[in-house]
Amino acid sequence: MSVLEIKDLHVSIEDKEILKGVNLTMNTGEIHAIMGPNGTGKSTLSAAIMGNPNYVVTQGEVLLDGENILELEVDERARKGIFLAMQYPSEIPGITNAEFMRASINAKRAEDDKISVMNFIKKLDEKMDLLDMPEEMAERYLNEGFSGGEKKRNEILQLLMMEPTFAILDEIDSGLDIDALKVVSKGVNEMRSDDFGALIITHYQRLLNYITPDVVHIMMDGKIVKTGDAELAKQLEAEGYAGISKELGIELAGE
């Protein structure tokens, strides 16, 4: 079992503090969901864990099996088994999907243990079929000209191919119609195992109708203010953030 621990994490952007002491512990074998209003720090948390240089950690730790990964470069964090599916994936012309994924898989493997072309193609065909993706997607340049739904499916394809220890999924449901949402959820559920954990950042209960979380966290004003099981997301849908904030005695921004 691997453990990802976030301890008293404070993060600033351009001297403005966004995260104000986030604490969270997640084990492999678990799927956690973070929900909260816009501007509360959910995406900042994902960026800080992965090492985006625009986000400055001023206090706290992010520990992977006891090692503080905040001291590692982005590529080192990825090789340690951290994966980020971004809300707005970048387009990279000149590099095909297949090339990118094979290079990413091999970057985590020893020089004498690179994945063979045949094994890579077999695995790629299998995962693309699972996600109802046409074969030609593999040879398109990474995210170039992709629709929003294609980008999200492609992020999940990368997840399935790379098999990280922990995945951070930042609003993978954003802009998806119901059919695409079901396919993306199918891919995430395919990864569920004792060797995998996921942190899903979302605004909406609808995603959690298809990916049932073990733990739900509510984030407000840069902190996790309430934690519970899947029923907490249903309570949030029924009461809204205003209801939760009133229950906790927290004033929502803008009120």
From TrEMBL:
GO terms for molecular function: ATP binding; ATP hydrolysis activity. The keyword Cytoplasm does not apply. PROSITE patterns: ABC_TRANSPORTER_1, ABC_TRANSPORTER_2. Residues 4-246 form the ABC transporter domain. It comes from Vagococcus elongatus. It comes from the Bacteria. This is Fe-S cluster assembly ATPase SufC. Signal peptide: none annotated. NCBIfam families: sufC.
